[in-house]
Amino acid sequence: MITNSIILEKPVITEKSIGRTKGHVYTFIVARNASKHQIQESVAAVFGVTVTDVRTLMRKGKQRRVGKTRRLVSTMPSKQAIVHLAKGQTIDIFTTPVEEGGKNA
User: Fold this and answer.
1) By CB count within 10 A, which of 9, 37, 61, 102 is most buried?
2) pTM of the complete model
């Protein structure tokens, strides 16, 4: 059995994923072998929320050049999970602090 800390690797913090949090939708990088049901159970257990829907997508690895000789290496493919929560529930790690005094405060 895979533990919850192994299934949920890290949250995806991008402009798009932060914008989706207003609609109770959160995005995580998850273990490649995790099923939708395992993802749903681990999000519910770790954050104490009710998950209504889980959508997954595989991101293929990319070619990168590294080192002095600029040789090609491949990054590992990863799996993303887009998790929909019940109405009125949020996950605190995605909230952004409200700036006081406007843009240049």
Assistant:
1) 9
2) 0.80
